[in-house]
Amino acid sequence: MTGSRLAAAAFAASTALAAVASPAAFAQSGTVRIAWIDPLSGMMAPLGQNMVRSWQYIADHANQQKWAGDVKFEVVTFDNKLSPQETLTALKSVVDQGIRYIAQGNGSGVAIALADAVAKHNERNPGKEIVFLNYAAIDPSLNNERCNFWHFRFDINADMKMEALTSYMARRPEIKKVYLINQDYAFGHSVEKAAEEYLKRKRADVQVVGKDRHPLAQVRDFAPYVAKIKAAGADTIITGNWGADLALLVKAAKDAGLAANFYTYYAGTTGVPTAMGAAGVDRVRQVSYWHANDSVVNAAPIIEGFKKKFNDDYYTMATYTALRFLSEAMKKSKSTDPVKVALAMEGLRVQSLNGEVEMRASDHQAQQAVYISSWQKVDGKSVKFDQENTGYGWRTEGKLEAYVAAQPTSCQMKRPAAR
Fold first, then answer.
1. Is the dihedral of CA 201, 145, 87, 344 positive or negative?
2. pTM metric for this prediction
3. Residues near 144 by beta carbon (within 8 Å), at least 6 away in sequence
4. What proportions of the chain, in percent to the nearest 5, are helix, strand and coil?
5. 331-387 confidence digits (pLDDT tens)
6. Which CATH number applies to 159-288+370-404: 3.90.660.20, 3.10.340.11, 3.30.200.20, 3.40.50.2300?
7. Helix (H, G, I), strand (E, B) or coil at 397
8. What does the CA dihedral 98, 104, 107, 109 come to, rounded to 10 degrees?
9. Do 37 and 82 form a contact (C-beta atoms < 8 A)?
């Protein structure tokens, strides 16, 4: 049996074991539609395209493996152009079409507006409730002061990521001068704030030698920002930038010969690996809840199958986690009704590709391991999978278990009555 067939067999066996361990299949059937609302146009379109493919690919996999018994998942796409206004317009279409589950992740500003709109809709329309599956928008306010019952986050939030990133950085004495550059909206502000606070607590000797905020998805030339970073004498850059905003920043740094190291949230997202290439080796690190070269469950069939189908990289693993939670909650509640499924998701634990993930009931923030990884050449051992056909991929440098990465919450949510 070939290596790929062995991997497929192992994955099928793990899926079968998961099915045995889960509640018995329930007497529900039909199709549950999930409205994916994210950008498919503009500068962030390549990122959106990867992510909608990830949702659809995992939905197909879940259907084939009968994760939710006889219930099938269908992902319906809405291009919001990265705009809160366009998102609210899409929400009206979702309501009109009778879709009861929404997935969104690109842009916390969008997520904040969407979470609020969903909560208001649900309050005004009992019996037509919608559940918001947040797979990538990580502003901490969404599970603190802005939390609501209908919002579930499957990514780790910005503070959890910064906790892990600065714990790793605290052990690296070569870091002396840090520059912060972030997108000028809620998420970027939270990254900047957390970086300053956590570094001060863990490495008081480190200087923050500069800070910049730039418009989201509008800057096409980061050379002026890189010039400021060089002039400040920074040896380290911390950035929450994602998509084109990070790819173009990394490209500008490479073109200018900037010697500083990057500590990032999203260096593994579309476009950035190509921008880094060989120049990023051992100089770029990212914090994440998973990467392709460090799976607890054998993920090779998913990674290889996605690559074969789309010639693209599967990295948004929250799509797998979200559909696992949705499936198990439907089995547990014996229903596809959003209220029953949402109540069943609270406190639920599932096995994802990064191990056990718990949906914390108090704030609907997924609790899971956090990884620090570095950009390295493929070696067939610690780095088996590359990204964007570069010959380079991610190697784990550190890992925080879920209980270590957990952050407190101020969430006080109002729950609906069970029905």
1. positive
2. 0.91
3. 363, 409, 410, 411
4. 40, 20, 40
5. 999 999 999 999 999 999 999 999 999 999 999 999 999 999 999 999 999 999 999
6. 3.40.50.2300
7. strand
8. 40
9. no
